[in-house]
Structures are given as structure tokens and as C-alpha cells.
């Protein structure tokens, strides 16, 4: 009762004189009778209580939100969040003088923290979905991995306003293995002991990753992803493409349940050539869900500029512009309106935990053509790249022609039209065409496109001049007599364009893909001249054949990549390398082919780098043998990394070399087609 709360003496004081009427039981009436002076204390108390309560509520809500973000899995240690300004100071405002290298998604700078610690700061290109995925992946694994054989991010900085994403790593003073070995920056690696120890370190690093529960598959094992510390101990870096096997398996099951991926609806609203598409039901999650405290709106992931310029081979179907007739063009900012997207693997997948969203890359392997287009949209994002840069870097054949605004628009229009009109029938046609392609052509596209183009040009020229030569599908590889000549011609051009690394067997990732490297118009140097492809896991030449064939990825895919790396470390050269020397060099151009031939001839030691000092021939032969075991086409036949470490360290007996060391590209698609024609049921065996 309100009257009870007010002292009776006070009530009496407020009663008007001579008023016989008993005080009203109504609280309101009673209240009116109270003087403002008397009312003030309880009112103030009530207000204070309400305000305090509101504050408490707000505080509790904020606290909940903050703690939610920072909650990390119990078995994880959260990466440290650095203030952006601190990293700016540490790197002298990202001074070019402190730049250590350039990756597919950003530059890496040397920095010194206030406590004197030396760090490597990776400034990620924002606006790239793939870049953001890698950023998140790196941080996820940073909290999961702890090994002397792995370099994981120790911290990060993410500035939502500036959209700056920075990753901080412990500095590896001797850089990457690619530069150290192939660019001969570290003479120490020409000592056999050091070289062998690098190989064993990498093997141990992979063994560690595969021994985790669930096993972690690195997915991009190559020399530029191996860093050397001050003692030249090797450590595996770059977990941007790494993935957890369990997550991938779950994803695989999900895919099976869902049946073949299908894009139900793709609506494009083209606004002139700006072509704006709207995203409606794509659900993803940023990695706030990992509790890493970085704000990232879903829009930041899906509102992206797109360029469909990359002819990446995704899941065995290569969609080069030539193959599907996609005109190359500058990027367009688009918002995608999708009901089901391969990247998100449909509604079910989309509604799954955000923890898994980037694992979706794995699903692309068996997806139909449209999904590859979506993969492109998800991966070939170059928001900040000026159009001009894109034009020059993505159109090697026309790069020296002036590109007008209208032609640019036309191309863009064409590309979008093509994309919109890609109905099932066309999709089937493209797949049919793909199936017909000889496996050799896979190599042609991936490695020798430029060479092939030049050969064609040369042949055309010769034909015009009346000199007719054979035009076999196989003659992309220089044949006796004319190979050297045409290659020399190609090399001259490459030199002129200073794009030497296209033949390194590795393609540029992200901004600079294979075509960019072929064009010779790239201004930004990339450390080691290496790269990987954005829409597929791994790097061409290092990637396991089962990936291209749409097979299952497993630890054995890393084993295959390790096999290539081991050969590279032994030979001290790239997996594909053609020099302007005699014909015998061509036989050695493909390191894996060469190793296979040497194995047959019983001369494995010939593959080993002649400039190594203090060579232990027995150990070197063992290394090449182990590499070949890792390079077997059948994943099941390859040893595990544990066995590899055992073999390298002498604890496990090395089995006899198998007959098959085929580095052949995936031929599953073609085989299927052949079998279908013949009416055979056996479609799984490769050729
Ligand atoms: N922790 C580090 N210490 C020293 N140098 C580093 C470190 N991290 C990266 N670098 C240098 O920066 C380069 C670029 O690294 P980044 O991981 O961005 O790209 P990458 O692995 O070379 O290429 P990609 O993105 O195609 O895998 C490395 O090759 C290496 O030379």
C-alpha cells in the first residue's frame, strides 16, 4: 500500500486544516497531497534505482556480447589482438623498405614490436573473399596448432572501418624455402646436412598436422610456404588453405545427402554494365563465431567485385575463357542474389555453423559448371584493383591494345550475359567438351598455355608463308627439331615482359593468377615468383592428382605435395623448368617424369643437385625414393607422413619402388566419357 510507505506524521502535515474527510485511499490522491519536497527523496530513489537497473542491464548485455565474442574453444588459445596503430608503428607505416614478400593476398612486412620482438606483419587485401577466408583460417589454426614445425599467426588486427586485416607472425629470419633454395639466397642450404634436415623438418611438420584429432590437412604444401628460422630449421607456414578433416568429411556427407549440388536460381539485375546483383539468402558467418572478436558483416563477404577472368581448373573441369567462351573483362562490383550457392552448399550448409563456412571450398570439387562460376565469384574478387590493372593483367593476348571504355563495357556485358544465360543445356555442352579433352591438354592449359599460343601463332605464320608442319595435339611439348627454336622465341618474349616465373610450375594466387603471370604485365613482384590458384586447394605441380579428378582429399594429398617438394629440395630446381639448352634438357623439364625415368634406369642419384657439398649419396637416394613413393597416383599406395618420417630417419624400412610414378594429370572426366561411349560401366579407373 502506498500510504504505508509514507510516514504518518508526514501525512498529517499534508492534511488541509479543518478537513474532516479521511485521507483518500487512492495513491494518486494521496500523492497529490504530498509536497514536492517530501516527494523528492522517494522519487529520486526510484529514478536512481531505475537508472541503475537500466545501466546494469546494458552492462550485462554488453558484457555478454563481449564475452561471447571472446569465447574460444576450451582447447584453444586466442590469438592476440593488436591495435592497428601499434602494427603501423612496428612496420614504420608499412614501409616498402621493410617488405619481406608478396603473397597471393597481400604483402608481408618486417616489424618490431615495442618490446623488441621481431615480427612479420601480413597486410591482407581486404575486399577479397578468398583473402578474408584465408585470414579467418589462419586465425582459426593459430589457436589450434602449436608445433616447432609450424608458423602460425600470433595475433591480428582488424579494423572494420578501414577494412584492414593484419596478421602477425613470428619473424622467420631466413625467409621462405623457395627463395632460399631456388633463388640461392641461402648458401647454407648447399650443405647436404642442412638440405636433408629441411626435408625432415617439413615431413615432421606434416606428420604433426596429420596426427591431430581431427587431422589437419595443409592443402598447399610448397617451398614458398616453408619458412626458415635463424638456424635454418624449416617450419610450415600459410594455413590459409588448411582444413580440418572432420569438418571436410561432415561436409562431404552433407553433400551426399543433398545430392549433386545444384544452383536453383541465379538472379542478376544488371544495371547498365555496372551489373548489380543482390544477395538474398546466402547465410554465412564471420569468425565472430570463433570468438576472435573481429567484426565482419556478411555483406563484407558477399558484396564483392567480381572478375571472371581466371581459367582456374576447379575439380577437374577447367573453365578457361577459351573453353567456355567467357570474355575476359575488368571486375565489376556485384551483389549476388542466390538461393543456393556452391560455396555455401545450399540452405542446409548455409545454416550450419559459421565455423564451417570456409570449408566449403572442398565441396567445389564435384560441383557442376555453374558452381564453378560461383566459385569464381567467391574467389576472383579484386575490389581494389584498378580496372586498368585488371585489363592489362588478365588479357595477355590483347594487353598491348588500347582498351577503350566502351570495349571494356562491352566485354563486361558479354561476360554477364554469358553467365546469366548459362542454362543446363549449355552447361552440359561445356562438360561434354571438357570430357573430350585429352588429359595432355590439362597440362597444356595449366603450364604451357603461352608456349602453346606462341606455337600456334608461329605455325599460322609458317602456314601463311607456305611452310606446313604437323599439328598434333601432343606437339605443345617441343619436339625434336623445332621445339628449341619455338621455345627460344617464347623465352625472348617472356624476358622482355619480365614474366619469367610463369614456367615455375606455380600459378599466382588471387589477384595474380596464371594468366596474370603469363601476361607479363604484372607490376607487383611476388616472393619467389610463386603462387597458387585461388579456387582450388593447392598449387599446380604440387597438388595431388586426385584433387583435379574430383576425388577425396585427405592427408595423402599433402603426402603427394610433400613428394614434389622433396624432389625439388633434392634437385634444387622447380618441378617444371625448361632452359634454353639441348634437347636432353626437355626430358628433364618435368621433374617428376625425370625422376620416374631415372628410377627405371636405376640412376636416382642423377637427380640430386650437383652443387650440394658433402653429399651423402645413400641418404640422397633414399630421399628421392621416398619422394617417388609419395608421388604414387593412388592415394592409398602413398605412405603416411609418419611412415615418411620413419623412412627418412631410418626407423622404417623403405619398400621397393612401385612401377607407377605417373605424374599424369587427372583423366577421370575423360575416361568417364570414353567409357560411356563404349557403354562400359567402369568409370573410376584412370587411363
Ligand atoms: N613469418 C614470416 N617471416 C619471414 N618472412 C615471411 C613470414 N611470413 C611470410 N613471409 C614472407 O612473405 C612472403 C609472402 O608470404 P605469403 O604467405 O603472403 O605468400 P606466399 O605463401 O608466398 O604465397 P601464396 O599466398 O600464394 O601462398 C613469403 O614467401 C615469405 O618470404
TrEMBL record:
Signal peptide: none annotated. The keyword Transport does not apply. Keywords: ATP-binding, Kinase, Membrane, Nucleotide-binding, Serine/threonine-protein kinase, Transferase, Transmembrane, Transmembrane helix. Residues 387-399 have a biased composition (Low complexity). InterPro entries: At4g25390-like (IPR044576), Kinase-like_dom_sf (IPR011009), Prot_kinase_dom (IPR000719), Protein_kinase_ATP_BS (IPR017441), Ser-Thr/Tyr_kinase_cat_dom (IPR001245), Ser/Thr_kinase_AS (IPR008271). Residues 94-657 form the Protein kinase domain. It comes from the Eukaryota. The keyword Transmembrane applies. GO terms for molecular function: ATP binding; protein serine/threonine kinase activity. Residues 669-679 have a biased composition (Basic residues). Residues 1-12 have a biased composition (Polar residues). Residues 1-33, 385-409, 478-498, 659-687 are annotated as: Disordered. The chain crosses the membrane at residues 43-63. It holds the Pfam family PK_Tyr_Ser-Thr. ATP binds at residue 122. This is Protein kinase domain-containing protein. It comes from Linum tenue.
Amino acid at each position: 500500500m502506498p500510504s504505508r510507505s509514507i510516514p504518518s506524521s508526514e501525512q498529517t502535515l499534508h492534511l488541509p486544516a479543518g478537513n474532516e474527510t479521511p485521507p483518500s485511499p487512492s495513491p494518486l490522491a494521496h500523492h497529490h497531497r504530498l509536497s514536492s519536497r517530501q516527494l523528492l527523496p522517494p522519487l529520486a530513489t526510484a529514478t536512481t534505482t531505475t537508472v541503475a537497473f537500466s545501466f546494469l542491464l546494458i552492462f550485462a548485455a554488453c558484457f555478454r556480447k563481449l564475452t561471447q565474442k571472446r569465447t574460444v574453444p576450451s582447447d584453444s588459445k586466442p590469438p592476440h589482438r593488436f591495435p592497428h596503430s601499434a602494427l603501423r608503428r612496428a612496420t614504420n607505416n608499412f614501409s616498402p623498405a621493410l617488405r619481406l614478400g608478396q603473397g597471393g593476398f597481400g604483402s608481408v612486412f618486417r616489424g618490431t614490436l615495442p618490446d623488441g620482438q621481431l615480427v612479420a606483419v601480413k597486410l591482407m587485401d581486404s575486399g577479397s573473399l578468398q583473402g578474408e577466408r584465408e585470414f579467418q583460417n589462419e586465425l582459426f589454426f593459430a589457436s589450434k596448432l602449436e608445433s616447432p614445425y609450424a608458423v602460425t599467426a600470433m595475433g591480428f588486427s582488424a579494423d572494420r572501418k578501414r577494412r584492414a586485416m593484419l596478421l602477425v607472425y613470428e619473424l622467420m629470419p631466413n625467409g621462405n624455402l623457395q627463395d632460399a633454395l631456388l633463388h640461392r639466397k641461402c648458401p647454407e642450404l648447399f650443405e647436404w646436412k642442412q638440405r636433408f634436415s629441411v626435408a625432415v623438418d617439413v615431413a615432421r611438420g606434416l606428420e604433426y598436422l596429420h596426427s591431430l584429432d581431427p587431422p589437419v590437412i595443409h592443402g598447399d604444401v610448397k617451398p614458398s610456404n616453408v619458412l626458415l628460422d635463424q638456424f635454418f630449421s624449416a617450419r610450415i607456414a600459410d594455413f590459409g588453405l588448411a582444413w580440418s578433416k572432420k569438418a571436410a568429411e561432415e561436409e562431404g556427407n552433407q553433400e551426399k545427402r543433398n545430392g549433386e549440388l545444384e544452383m536453383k536460381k541465379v538472379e542478376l539485375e544488371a544495371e547498365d554494365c555496372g551489373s548489380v546483383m543482390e544477395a538474398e539468402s546466402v547465410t554465412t558467418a564471420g569468425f565472430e563465431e570463433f570468438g576472435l572478436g573481429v567484426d565482419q558483416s556478411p555483406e563484407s563477404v558477399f558484396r564483392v567485385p567480381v572478375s571472371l577472368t581466371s581459367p582456374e581448373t576447379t575439380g577437374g573441369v577447367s573453365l578457361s575463357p577459351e573453353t567456355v567462351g567467357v570474355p575476359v573483362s575488368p571486375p565489376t562490383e556485384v551483389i549476388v542474389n542466390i538461393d543456393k550457392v556452391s560455396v555455401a552448399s545450399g540452405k542446409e550448409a548455409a545454416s550450419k555453423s559459421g565455423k564451417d563456412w570456409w570449408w566449403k571450398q572442398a565441396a567445389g570439387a564435384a560441383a557442376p559448371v555453374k558452381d564453378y562460376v560461383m566459385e569464381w565469384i567467391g574467389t576472383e574478387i579484386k575490389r581494389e584493383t584498378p580496372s586498368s590493372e585488371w585489363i592489362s593483367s588478365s588479357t595477355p593476348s590483347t594487353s598491348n591494345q588500347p582498351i577503350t571504355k566502351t570495349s571494356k563495357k562491352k566485354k563486361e556485358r558479354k561476360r554477364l550475359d554469358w553467365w546469366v544465360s548459362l542454362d543446363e543445356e549449355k552447361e552440359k555442352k561445356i562438360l561434354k567438351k571438357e570430357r573430350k579433352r585429352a588429359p595432355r591438354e590439362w597440362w597444356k592449359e595449366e603450364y604451357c598455355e603461352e608456349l602453346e599460343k606462341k606455337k600456334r601463332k608461329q605455325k599460322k605464320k609458317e602456314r601463311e608463308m607456305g611452310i606446313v608442319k604437323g599439328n598434333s595435339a601432343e606437339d605443345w611439348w617441343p619436339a625434336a627439331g623445332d621445339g628449341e627454336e619455338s621455345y627460344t622465341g617464347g623465352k625472348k618474349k617472356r624476358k622482355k615482359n619480365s614474366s619469367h616465373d610463369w614456367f615455375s610450375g606455380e600459378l599466382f594466387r588471387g589477384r595474380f593468377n596464371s594468366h596474370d603471370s603469363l601476361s607479363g604485365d604484372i607490376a607487383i613482384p611476388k616472393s619467389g615468383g610463386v603462387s597458387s590458384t585461388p579456387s582450388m586447394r593447392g598449387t599446380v605441380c604440387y597438388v595431388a592428382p586426385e584433387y583435379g579428378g574430383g576425388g577425396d582429399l585427405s592427408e595423402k594429398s599433402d603426402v603427394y605435395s610433400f613428394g614434389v617438394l622433396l624432389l625439388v629440395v633434392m634437385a634444387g630446381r622447380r618441378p617444371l623448368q625448361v632452359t634454353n639448352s639441348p634437347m636432353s634438357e626437355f626430358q628433364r623439364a618435368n621433374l617428376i617424369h625425370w625422376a620416374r625415368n631415372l628410377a627405371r634406369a636405376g640412376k636416382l642419384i642423377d637427380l640430386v643437385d650437383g652443387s650440394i657439398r658433402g653429399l651423402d649419396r645413400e641418404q640422397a637416394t633414399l630421399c628421392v625414393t621416398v619422394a617417388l613413393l609419395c608421388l604414387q597416383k593412388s592415394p592409398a599406395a602413398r605412405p603416411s607422413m609418419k611412415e615418411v618420417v620413419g623412412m627418412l630417419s631410418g626407423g622404417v624400412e623403405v619398400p621397393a619402388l612401385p612401377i607407377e610414378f605417373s605424374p599424369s594429370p587427372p583423366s577421370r572426366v575423360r575416361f568417364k566419357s570414353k567409357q560411356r561411349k563404349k557403354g562400359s560401366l567402369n568409370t573410376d579407373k584412370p587411363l
